[in-house]
Amino acid sequence: LTIYRKDYTAPSFWVDTVEMGFDLDPKSTVVSTRTTLKRNTESTEKDLILFGESLKLVQIRMNGQKLARTAYEIDKHSLRIFNPPNEIILDIETQISPIKNTSLSGLYVSNDNFFTQCEAEGFRKITYFQDRPDVMAKFTVMLRADKKKYPVLLSNGNLIEKGKLSDGRHFAKWEDPFKKPSYLFALVAGKLVCQEEKIKLQSGRKALLQVWVEKGNLDKTQHAMDSLQNSIFWDEQRFGLELDLERFMIVAVSDFNMGAMENKGLNIFNTKYVLANSKVATDADYAGIESVVGHEYFHNWTGNRVTCRDWFQLSLKEGLTVFRDQEFSADMIGTNSGRAVNRIADVRVLRQAQFPEDAGPMSHPVRPESYVEINNFYSVTVYEKGAEVVRMYYTLLGHEGFRKGMDLYFKRHDGQAVTCDDFRAAMADSSGRDLTQFERWYSQSGTPRLKVATKYDAAKQTFEMTFTQSCPATAGQDKKQPFHIPVAVGLLNAAGQDMPLHCQEQANPTDSTTLVLEITKAKQVFHFTNVTEQPTPSILRNFSAPVELEMDYSDDQLAHLLAHDSDAFNRWEAGQRLAMRRLLKLTAAVQVQQPLELDTMFIEALRKTLNDSTLDAAFREQVLTLPSTTNVAEQMDVIDPQAIKAARDFMRSEITRHLKADLLTAYENNLTPGKYSPDASSTGMRALKNLALAYLQEWPKSSTFELADSQCANAKNMTDRIGALAAMVNAEILTGGTHKDATKSANKAVAHALKQFYNDFKQEALVIDKWFMLQGSAGSTDVAKMRKLLKHPAFTLSNPNRARSLIFAFCNANPSQFHAADGSGYALWADLVIELNAINPQVAARLARSLDRWRKYTPALQEFMQAALQKVAASKNLSKDVLEIVTKA
Ligand code: ARG
Ligand code: ZN
């Protein structure tokens, strides 16, 4: 059942060409495939092994002859042809039922249209094939379907022919000029319309760009189109990589398991990452679209032109492409502080999701050693930690050094299926650097701890920094070797300015105020000279490595960094450290029922940041956003969700009590009247304003609630509408207790606002998702209310976006209710995992992850969690996907 990286062998046959014919019909689609193959003389395997799943084999012919039944063997997952000749032409006809395919992998139907999703192993649900990424071939695809029902027929590459057939049918023939693995195959057929634009590429060639959507959505494609053009120009400028096709298509589909898919020339997207206008999409949606459109486009080179040898190398394309999309989004903002805000958001994701993953039962290296179901390894570790690993090359080699490495990578491997080692070799060879030890970032799992101790000698004017690294044991890995860690440091003087850096162990090649120290040993000391006064060290600037930094900063040092650090990331980080320290203390105080207190020093530091108009609004918003419940939980030995929530609630209400006037001013100073624009400055202002509005709801008086109510009623864009609605929904229970009357009318107003919102947007699926999400994550939504929402006529488990909106919000973003003391949240979880497993294993497996960290909770909760896990494990017809998760948990 388990597949191991060490067992990799090359395929027994190479494929030259694939010609496919589809007779599309929802109930029964016939697929004919002609493949030309040549034996791989280096392989010891004599047979040809094709994978196939849920297929009906209609016929199979080899070199024009019907294949004798004794010449092959067939089971549930594969078709094996015994020792075929060295050069063969295979004709295979299969029959499939797209309408019955609820897994959304392979060929399926969504809103009466056809779509495919073949990564990682969906192609084998279409026909028998060596469905593995190192088998690359040139594809030609003929699509035939009813012309009225399916007027648009799309596949990869260039359209070379189209025309009429008898019986009201028509056809389109597509040819992809580039060799590709089967996971990049795609087709789309149905009633769709497109926005199209022609652009001129760097070389002077022209390209046709199209964004395909359902008819009612043509007013929501402009941002995706703009993002696509920006992506194309950015990749030309930053990496010298040009679009290699005459035409590039994006298609939006409302039933989709993930964000989007980089099929060659025919990217298929979850509607969530395409459709936007100011009425239905938030600033965050606009940013998400820009980054995912970029991500998929950048795959055209990092993923498609150079692909993965096997799925253990997934991060080769994903880590690299996430890094590229992060850089793209940062460059689109341009300003230094804008870049920092993006960096903060990326690091938040890492800490919120990847650090916990890496400390739990599903912990795996960026390049996993084994898997049961590869879909479970499209993980935050492979993607986001993988991107951090690529970023470390960038930090070590510098801007130009990294570019040289990329150039060499393409020079060596264009058109090939390669490994993470090949990428590392290109980086090493192009720079002349030894990156041998760097491999440990790919082979060792777990979040390294980096401890720092410092010593200042005023007489000698020296400053000493001692780094000690370690990495906790993780699933299947007890012992770890030291990592090669780039640590960017600076020293601040008492005035808050950067001091010149003279390090004995490592010269500063650019004479800048940030030096990248390279830590390679378990313990390492660095000596700085000519340090004229006691400095405040700023360590791990811009989060230069994905580690947990342990440093005994004093509160005063942190306040100094928060006020002055030239590195905006570390400025924010200092604020988070101040907050985290207090949240942990408060949580402990809640547990022993001691009085709760928050010091003035912290509140004044926040006040100063909030009121500092020299700082971007977006940055101030990040500083004022407290560490999440999950962030706090990860810092505790035993997680007590209710205590964390009480501590956080207390901190929020104390902040509001002291900063009410400042928050009101921030609210008023950051209104964005006029035409909506998703630019960084307006986005930042709305974010800060809506954060202030949310804080102000802690003020138990109706005036601030009315402010939210009125913003909700008068909002001119979705960001302000949902921002206000969220503030109101979360105020519902917060105003309880002390002000009974206010609570009553507030609850009425909330119910009214929710109803109004639903009525205004019931035609907009993506907005209704937001409506469910808001309620799933609201502190006032308990299990009983959840069961009611699950029965809402607009709710369905079979649409992944809808399922995620309500259920994932509850299980992952509503900790105090999900972890209800009676275990009812877990019981609900088990029911839903089991139900989803029968519909869509991939989505079910994602939900199954919500109990990953069960060992860290209080014993009473652990018992309920185990019972729920066992209930799922014991249920019938469990998919590999879910089985792997619950077994490992
Ligand atoms: N390669 C796609 C992306 O990074 C993700 C597709 C994953 N799909 C899946 N079923 N595992 O954008
Ligand atoms: Zn990707």
Automatic annotation (TrEMBL):
Q: Which GO terms describe its biological process?
A: proteolysis
Quickly give the catalysed reaction: Release of an N-terminal amino acid, Xaa-|-Yaa- from a peptide, amide or arylamide. Xaa is preferably Ala, but may be most amino acids including Pro (slow action). When a terminal hydrophobic residue is followed by a prolyl residue, the two may be released as an intact Xaa-Pro dipeptide
Look at the named UniProt entry and state the broad enzyme category this protein falls under: hydrolase
Task: Give every Peptidase M1 alanyl aminopeptidase C-terminal domain span.
Answer: 555-889
- Give the EC number: 3.4.11.2
Name all Aminopeptidase N-like N-terminal domain ranges: 22-184
Q: Where is the Peptidase M1 alanyl aminopeptidase Ig-like fold domain?
A: 446-551
Tell me which residues make up the Peptidase M1 membrane alanine aminopeptidase domain: 224-441
* Cofactor annotation: Zn(2+)
GO-annotated molecular function: alanyl aminopeptidase activity; metallopeptidase activity; zinc ion binding
Which keywords does the record carry? Aminopeptidase, Hydrolase, Metal-binding, Metalloprotease, Protease, Zinc
The text of the family note is:
Belongs to the peptidase M1 family.
What is the role of the protein in this entry? Answer: Aminopeptidase N is involved in the degradation of intracellular peptides generated by protein breakdown during normal growth as well as in response to nutrient starvation.
Q: What is this protein called?
A: Aminopeptidase N
